[in-house]
Amino acid sequence: MLSSPSAPSLSVLLVACLLPVEIVAFSRVELVNNGYENLVIGISPSLPESEGATLIPVIKEMIKNASEVLFTATRRRAFFRDVRIVIPKSWSNTDTDDVAVFESFTESDLRIDNPNPVYENQPYTRQPGECRDPGDFIHMTPAYLKEEIFSYYYGPPAKVLVMEWARLRWGVYDEIGYSGDPKYPIFFSLPREEASGRTDVRSQVEYQVNVCTDTYIKGKERMWFDETLMCTYTHEGLPDDDCVFFPDANQTAKSSLMSFPLVFSDTLVEFCDDHTHNSLAKTKHNDRCDGQSVWEVMLQHSDFKANANPATSNSEEPNIKVVRETNPDYVLVLDYSGSMSTANRMVRLQLAAQRWLLHEVPLYSSVAIVRFDSTASLLAPLTKIEGETERKSLASQIHTSNNGGTSIGAGLKMAVDLLEGRADKNVFLITDGEENEAPMVADVMDEIISKKLCVSTLALGGNAAKDLEKLGDLTKCPSYTVNDNDVSNALENAFEGVSTRQLSASPEESFIKIEETPKIQTADATYEGSFLVDSTVGRNLTFRLKADAKSHVISGPTLVKPDGTILQGAADFDDIGNVWTVVVPDAEEGTWQWKVTLSQDSSKYIQATVQALPRDPNDAPIVTTVKFLAPATGVSPKDQSIKIIATVMKGNSPIRGANVIAYVTPPDITASAQEYELLDNGAGADAVSGDGIYSRYMTTFAGEGRYSIKALVKGGSSSSVNNGPPPPPSFPSAGRRRRRSADLSINPRPCCGSIVPYDPDTATPTGNFTRVSSGSSLKVSDPPAPDEDILPPCKVTDLHVAELYGQDEGGSILTLVWTSPGDDHDEGTASDYTFRLTGVRPDLTNKGFGEAPASTLLQFERAALNESGVLVPFGSSVAFNVTYRGDLTFGTEYLVALKAKDEAGNESPVSNVASFFLDQKLALPTWADELIKTLKKSNAEFFSKT
Ligand SMILES: *[C@@H]1O[C@H](CO)[C@@H](O)[C@H](O)[C@H]1NC(C)=O
Ligand SMILES: *[C@@H]1O[C@H](CO)[C@@H](O)[C@H](O)[C@H]1NC(C)=O
Ligand SMILES: *[C@@H]1O[C@H](CO)[C@@H](O)[C@H](O)[C@H]1NC(C)=O
Ligand SMILES: *[C@@H]1O[C@H](CO)[C@@H](O)[C@H](O)[C@H]1NC(C)=O
Ligand SMILES: *[C@@H]1O[C@H](CO)[C@@H](O)[C@H](O)[C@H]1NC(C)=O
After folding, report:
1. Which end of the chain is more exposed for a tag (fewer CB within 10 A), N or C?
2. Nearest atom in ligand 3 to 585's CA
3. pLDDT digits over 78-117, tens only?
4. Is 233 in the pocket of ligand 5 (CB under 6 A)?
5. 20: how many CB neighbours lie within 10 A of its CB?
6. Atom 12 of ligand 1 has which residue's CA nearest to it?
7. Exposed, middle or buried by CB within 10 Å (0-12, 13-18, 19+), for 834?
8. Which numbered atom of ligand 5 lies nearest the CA of 880?
């Protein structure tokens, strides 16, 4: 009866909350007088140096070509002016133009790295945010850049780079469909009489390729796994899920660059704008960006807003430099003002700084220490760490006699002078107060920026300078916070964050944290703990026990192997930082125990940390990260939603089914840490199901101020590594332009629409594992009061029409199915809904929904909603019957959307736009033609062009 070509299956939960956010990425790219500057292309330290000789010239050529493509596509408003290719430190035989200053692989805009098996050699952009949010990075593989064959499937590098750039920079999305995708199909049906898309003699419906284009795209439909096989069709006449579209090489269409499988032709050089945009296409872009064209979204970016960077006559040839990563320099700028005595801050800072110097700061980096109160003075000049001697000598310079006022500018000025003429310049500023003596931060700001320093900041306690985050924001470096009652080890994690942030070590020398206890205070005479060593880690396992007083630990820690053997040999003791260290060269897999005898003084604490290197240097380990997705300088939850995002990957492969708990420590020291279970099921805050990015909205606030974050990730019997999509039924046979060599892995189906494909047969179980990770802080202003409900339900993104029941005197009944949103974003229960049915896409935008004609409202009984089981907490699939009182006509496509409301009346954004097609076989009476006329009218403009 009902043909609903894009209906998602019930098993796919898709809900997301959309609110405007301007998130600052760590990228330093700026658009200055039409030229992008500071674009960084990072080459992974996992790649052998022998790749450089072929890769670097190809990357340069790609950038030059891409700059021209970008210039055309932006209508002469932007090109790439200044680009650095940063190579690993270990590539010592490759010619360079300079050393890296701020450039690093881990913070590069475009990463050249081994494949993510989910995408294989297809370039992609990681963007876990919403429409208009910047992405994390673009990923391209060496094979894609070197082997021309991939251009046939994924588009040529220059054009693809511009397409990915649009996603990374302006937060737009693909304008294509995906084979088998429940939301973004390759083909979509058109209103019958208006259709001018591709038709097949067997079809009852007319349909179009799911792209944005200014004119008809020529091509053929074939099975995705074999270009010579004709497609099969559904009984309604739409191509089957395995059918894809192979465009001809010779096209006349100018748009859209975002339809990337089509871009191998010399045409398709423009983005769709409001004249060429097709808001009815079922693309990710339309779904996520409220039906707006790519061009409209771009124009809202600060690059182009208010006529910034207007069209210019000529682009410039990009200036491309190759730079090598280098050993970083760090200047610690420590607050020694009077207030540092509060809550033992001075002593806590001393211990954390000493432990960092003694155990964490990387070998061959250089460190200087500056103290400031009303003035600044030097505790230690820049000293290169060559071993224990330098570590101890630096650590012993940190004393605890503090006094006087606060001149942050004086401390920073000294750091600027110390770093004069150095390469990778990092400052870690730790302060607990507002500046009250000159020089001020503002007095040194210009110098800090022009000399490209990175200033990470740590706010200690609740009264640190309000604008501290501006420093991090302007220099694109992280801000941290530690409250006075912190038990989560946040102070030491901030130090670690500063020295691991831009370190791009090859996997075999990158330590992975597998366990971190909170600070433990106990009156017991002994303490026992355990940690898990999984199959991917275990080399140089390093167990550290820290105490605030040496006397608190009666005898150093003992480790017990999984088989019960006690590890003999005393722990190494550092009597400056009070740290016991046990190193196990090759730790057995399994659960280890640790034991320690204590002085029974419950005013003292111990704290344990375990880290290890990957077990097999050639097998990538499981690594996790966590962060708040929000502007660095602060945000009010009343203005925009805040997401918490964690990544769980083995190398570049997503891990499915991990248990990820984020702990958020609020500024209110009497409130306990808030726990969020982050999800990777495409629900709520999570953009794509199964991509190894776990997300949740932040919905609980305890006061104004800075929040810190930490995540605990566990794997078990239900978690696995996604090693790629299911294989094709048979390998692609030789097609017209197809060449293949056995070592090329090509997935002719682009990835990924709304879900990441997964092959249970090739996925590898992770077994039990644990990881700990912490992130930079979040500054919250004007949070809702505890009794104030201002957060709306999140956007429903998986609405679909599951059934349509024929006409009676009351109208037609539609069964709608969706995943329940929350009361506050993805927390709690929504309490009311509004549904609309229309043929007019603008009626279903965020702006249009409230103003659409009353005739588009779908009817239901309030009592039925209460009794239907629809009003349930976030995350359940619900079904509900609504009635359409107007006329429905066969041969017609209809659009349906909803808005959810909470009991305080806060309204969610409009849901995804579901559609259904009434095919001819549906025996409905032919009534008044009003609706289809409206539909025709709205579509006429677009289809008359095709
Ligand atoms: C760059 O453009 C030239 C000329 O059109 C073309 O031959 C070359 O293949 C392009 N290279 C890349 C990497 O895009
Ligand atoms: C491509 O299209 C153009 C313009 O329609 C035509 O002149 C040209 O011959 C075509 N080339 C091929 C290879 O079909
Ligand atoms: C791992 O341990 C070995 C042997 O003690 C040592 O030589 C090596 O430097 C350690 N590796 C790292 C990255 O610390
Ligand atoms: C993994 O952990 C679970 C729960 O902690 C435990 O029951 C199971 O035995 C562990 N599996 C292995 C292989 O260690
Ligand atoms: C919707 O209505 C139909 C026809 O009355 C009924 O069979 C079906 O169970 C209803 N579905 C729901 C979810 O209430």
Report:
1. N
2. 2
3. 999 999 999 999 999 999 999 999 999 999 999 999 999 8
4. no
5. 12
6. 62
7. middle
8. 13
Pair of tokens at residue 163: 């397409």
Spatial CA neighbour of 372 closest among 342, 406, 338, 349: 406
| E-strand stretches of 599-704 | 606-614, 622-629, 643-650, 653-656, 659-665, 674-678, 693-697
- Distance (angstroms) between ligand 3 centre and the Cα of 514 equals 18
- Residues whose beta carbon lies within 6 Å of some atom of ligand 3: 509, 540, 585, 613
* Inter-CA distances, 596 with 539, 574, 606, 802, Å: 23, 16, 10, 61
768 lines ligand 4 (CB under 6 A): yes
Ligand 3 atom closest to the Cα of residue 539 is: 1
| Global pTM value | 0.90
Contact between 176 and 167 under an 8 Å Cβ cutoff? The reply is no
Q: Does the bond joining 439 to the residue before it have cis omega, within 30 degrees of 0?
A: yes
In contact, 693 and 686? CB cutoff 8 Å: yes
Question: Would the CB of 65 count as within 6 Å of ligand 1?
Answer: yes
If you take atom 13 of ligand 1, which residue's CA is the nearest one? 62
Q: Give dist(CA 737, CA 748) in Å, integer.
A: 13
Q: CB under 8 Å to 908, separation ≥6 — which residues?
A: 17, 792, 793, 794, 795, 796, 821, 830, 899, 900, 901
Cis omega (within 30 of 0) for bond into 272: no
Cα separation, 79 vs 316, in Å, equals: 8
| Contact between residue 663 and residue 488 where contact means Cβ atoms under 8 Å apart | yes
CA 790, CA 903: separation in Å to the nearest integer?
10
CA distance 427 to 832: 51
- Residue 363 tokens read as 């070998």
Is the separation of the CB atoms in 669 and 635 below 8 Å? no
Ligand 5 pocket member 879 (CB < 6 A): yes
Query: In the prediction, which pLDDT does 946 show?
Result: 34
Ligand nearest to the CA of 803: 5
Categorize the per-residue pLDDT at 261 as very low, low, confident or very high, splitting at 50, 70 and 90. low
| One-letter amino acid of 304 | F
Pocket test residue of 592, 717, 719, 720 for ligand 4, highest count of atoms within 8 A of CB: 717
d(C-alpha 431, C-alpha 342), whole Å: 12
For atom 8 of ligand 4, the residue with the nearest CA is: 768
> What's the CA angle centered on 178, arms 172 and 184, to 5 degrees?
65
Other CB atoms within a 10 A radius of the CB of residue 815 amount to: 15
